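Write out the 3D structure for:
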Amino acid sequence: MVTDTPIGSTPQTQQLNSQLLDLQTQLTPTTTTHPLCLDLSSLQTLSDRAELCQALALLSYEAIDPSFDTLDIPENIHTPTQLKTALLKLRKHLKTPKIAIIIHNSDPTPEILDILTVLSPSFPIAWITDQPHPHRSFLPTAANLPQLLQTWLTRS
């Protein structure tokens, strides 16, 4: 049977795509943990550590305050330690004991994994990918991805 449905436009792929669109608004902060959903698709071509740290800081702050009404744009973030400091300031601003970093739309790269190694003692990290990495993993094809992430947040 031949259909006119384009590849990638099935009900299942539409559901999966909608799970990742605006993931930040689909998750609710818990009493102890605030989700920080980072779409790293725009960073796939970056390999410079300083540039990645600055971009991750900017994405993090933008995820919480997209128009930067209450947060200042983070500047001069060149190392993983400076990124960690910026995220700790963000955590203080949010008045929450923890920020859980949820990465999606990106495969793990050695450069990003190196940065996350510095962050992981202070921040729970999950990656939505089918590629191997040392952090908590969720498959992008999981039918109930937002619910799985919400459960993880509750336990983080």
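The chain has one domain: 28-155.
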